[in-house]
Amino acid sequence: MNPLDLIARRAYPYETEKRDRTYLALNENPFPFPEDLVDEVFRRLNSDTLRIYYDSPDEELIEKILSYLNTDFLSKNNVSVGNGADEIIYVMMLMFDRSVFFPPTYSCYRIFAKAVGAKFLEVPLTKDLRIPEVNVGEGDVVFIPNPNNPTGHVFEREEIERILKTGAFVALDEAYYEFHGESYVDLLKKYENLAVIRTFSKAFSLAAQRIGYVVSSEKFIDAYNRVRLPFNVSYVSQMFAKVALDHREIFEERTKFIVEERERMKSILRKMGYRITDSRGNFVFIFMEKEEKERLLEHLRAKNIAVRSFREGVRITIGKREENDMILKELEVFK
């Protein structure tokens, strides 16, 4: 079979909801990257550096990430970067024999596995959204978002350690860490078969710049750096990340607002009678049967509101106050 035909049969394109006037589908930060910080980025850029193949990551960025992680056991050899957290996930699927994940989970795990032709195993979460018993071991990489995406609930430390003790490699995807405030990065002191993945897309309003980072053992980081593309994150993107970390108090204040809005929305949705998860991300998740979900999506589309649809229900990004009030009003009308 023609290789291109084989890819067309095996893989499928990543598709998102059409951008409507009110777009609450992709868990983007509702606040723009501050204009004064954009100005600072461009003041700090050296025009001559734009012509060279720039170190990725550069040492200054690694030091700022280490400071942000605020641990006493990590060094520069424990950190690398990716063109978004997605590239890190993509590369890890090339590094291991089999990828394992637990739906409902981040949809790109399956999309990437099929795109690269990786072997993969999907084992659904239990009815109470816990990690099931699964036969994994050395050679497997197990992807676990924490908080989970799309449900936003948090996995217990014991669940993560149960998988780590099998010898399988665990990719702990902490894309929504800032909205939860708790990390399992300290498990790196105990387990070499663990990598923690983070992103600047969510809490730092830098989704368009495509920059994430991974923290793990020196052995893993060395292997990852050999497999990923060289110069994989641009000079400009790294500068945006460094400026963001220099002014993290701005983003911490915004994150506080998003968390408060999330809790407000959860409280109101429960009172309306919706069945929701205890989300710790920058979104809420409502369980719905297919027919009810399709009716809701049609209702919201008529109001130019886009949310993300999953087999189990709908995920709604926390937006600005007026956007949240708007969708709460429509959910009340729909109910």
UniProtKB/TrEMBL annotation:
For the modification N6-(pyridoxal phosphate)lysine, the affected residues are K202
The protein's required cofactor(s) are namely: pyridoxal 5'-phosphate
A GO term, aspect molecular function: pyridoxal phosphate binding
Designated gene of the protein: hisC
Stated name of the protein: Histidinol-phosphate aminotransferase
Family to which the UniProt record says this protein belongs: Belongs to the class-II pyridoxal-phosphate-dependent aminotransferase family. Histidinol-phosphate aminotransferase subfamily.
Query: Which residues belong to any copy of the Aminotransferase class I/classII large domain?
Result: 24-330
The record, for Pfam families, names: Aminotran_1_2 (PF00155)
Please list every transmembrane segment annotated in the UniProt record, as residue ranges.
none
Record's PROSITE patterns? AA_TRANSFER_CLASS_2
Q: Which CDD domains match?
A: AAT_like
**Pathway(s) where this gene product acts:** Amino-acid biosynthesis; L-histidine biosynthesis; L-histidine from 5-phospho-alpha-D-ribose 1-diphosphate: step 7/9
Q: Name one GO biological process term.
A: L-histidine biosynthetic process
The scientific name of the source species is Thermotoga petrophila (strain ATCC BAA-489 / DSM 13996 / JCM 10882 / RKU-10) (Thermotoga naphthophila)
Specify the domain of life of the species encoding this protein. Bacteria
Give the top-level enzyme category: transferase
Q: Please give the catalytic activity noted in the UniProt record.
A: L-histidinol phosphate + 2-oxoglutarate = 3-(imidazol-4-yl)-2-oxopropyl phosphate + L-glutamate
Self-association and partners: Homodimer.
UniProt EC number: 2.6.1.9
Q: Which UniProt keywords apply?
A: Amino-acid biosynthesis, Aminotransferase, Histidine biosynthesis, Pyridoxal phosphate, Transferase
